[in-house]
Amino acid sequence: MNNIKLIVLDIDGTLMDKNFHISDGVKNVISKAISKDIKVVLATGRMHSATVPIAKKLGITTPLITYQGAMIREYLNSDKILFHEPVEDKFSRKIIAELRQKDVQINVYMDDILFVETEGAILKEYANKRFISYKKVNSFDKVEKIEATKILAMAKTSQYADDLTDYLNQKYSQDLYITKSMPEYCEIADNKVSKGKAILYLANLWNINKSQIMAAGDGENDIEMLKIAGLSVVMGNASNKVKQNADFITDTVDNDGIVTAIEKFAL
Q1: Per-residue pLDDT for 140 more than 90?
Q2: Cβ atoms of 6 and 215 closer than 8 Å
Q3: Among candidate residues 173, 190, 207, the one where a domain is terminated
């Protein structure tokens, strides 16, 4: 199993606990993997700009997979965008109109900036904890062109987010990729994107076979990448739905499960 050449890691719930803390053990094991010439890539639903500080802290130098795979972008010696597939204007507007009828906070990400119409407590907590700034618009209807890299609907409960995800998938799965990241988050991107497709893009670039890829995650938005990886690692804190896609179920994020998995299979 020591033929791993690419390790792809989700951030929230995999590397980072609910208090937004990454342990020294995680930092050290990533550093060891990099020193053995294993490429370590972050794959997240987060914005590119919000992922850069985490990559720097971990010593990761590879391009970042962000917005559920809708963007692959370098950050170290250049900010070159390798891949970007936003939601078309007509679908962005349809989704925003749908979400306005629901009890959710609507976040629209364009040009690596977060735009909102409303500023509820749920948004402020989200932005403060992640050190993200945002721009308020009076109405998305007045924005000339909306090509959202991602749209995020933040619900008050996980059940509401489940129901919303199912509802939107029934209507839009032909054109859009709709998934859940955190229990209360329904995420909408173009249907040509996923973390899995983004990993294949980089693997092809680097001539790495699927069998040499290890992917680790805990959310429903990680299922695509778990399926394409030669070795899929699921965190102990994941739901049963995600665990069904595991070659190996490791310990929880609070117990440094990712350290166990990288040491076992890559080092």
Answers
A1: yes
A2: no
A3: 190
